[in-house]
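Researcher: Batch entry, complex prediction.
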Amino acid sequence: MHLFKPFNTICDLKTGVLSPPGNHIVRYLADMKEMFHDREAAETMLKENPKVYEFYNVVIPEEDGHLQHCTSIIYPGKVGKEYFMTKGHFHAVAGTAEIYVCLAGKGLLLMQTEDGQAEVLEMYPGSISYIPPYWAHRTINTGDEPLVFFGVYRGDAGHNYGTIEKQGFSKLVLEEDGQPCIIDNPRYNPRGGD
Amino acid sequence: MHLFKPFNTICDLKTGVLSPPGNHIVRYLADMKEMFHDREAAETMLKENPKVYEFYNVVIPEEDGHLQHCTSIIYPGKVGKEYFMTKGHFHAVAGTAEIYVCLAGKGLLLMQTEDGQAEVLEMYPGSISYIPPYWAHRTINTGDEPLVFFGVYRGDAGHNYGTIEKQGFSKLVLEEDGQPCIIDNPRYNPRGGD
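Model: Structure tokens for the complex:
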């Protein structure tokens, strides 16, 4: 039996920056422009290609007795009326949960099952959101400052981005009259990729 | 397949109090007096029977696709020279990890394997401690205010308190000249209960 040694990672609880950073991934608009509803607005913004979000993933074995953990930082901003958000994904091992602890900012957590059920939870400092097995998850920054949260999931859970890339989420979160508004996504295609 | 619904729990990030509280467990000195080294001091303090720690456990199915999560609050105090601490345990499914995110206060995280290896990590706001599979874990408040942390572990991990109750930890954390000092535990019995 290989015995893995305990260790600390230090998190700035205001900014979410991890030290050491582990796997640090930055997503710019160019990395996910097809995911926003207003493609004309996305195309125009590509000249500046803003940073939409980033995350820091502690390096942990991809085994089911371990726990992956990371911080995510979603920047404030919009593409047209649609708030900056993550790509969103199912887990590759779909029957595994995830937990988000919000540290700063405010936003929404949009979730969806393979058969099209949708759920939304609010995120704000101190909200602990439980994403049960089989729910895809996307986070959306509806505020004016970075949305920062800590996430934990099973070591072997992995990521399945493809299903969401093909099908989209069934809901969009747009700003209407200065407030977040959840509407049906006219481009949602539950049979996408079949 | 039973689909479990997403939900939020609200955490006071300063005090660790959860709302709703879930399973709320309080440990008084009388619940763990044999765990402190100075039994005479423990006996004397039993008249007041102080609260040593408490935790709030969100109610989650005990299945391996789920994630248990909780907050723990260790109060400041000492029994003789030994700081207030948790009982400490292995997981019943020993090969499962745990993560602690410290929110407030300061302390030490003492860990030990079945074959007697010991490790210690510091806890302070923003420290994220990774307790890998097969390590028993105990937290110790070495400060003057409550030590508060958020914990996550696999849904089916469970608790094995018995091994530590019989064997003890190989190390004690005592205050010497106002500083925490880690010493060998003369009562450690690695064959305890055999």
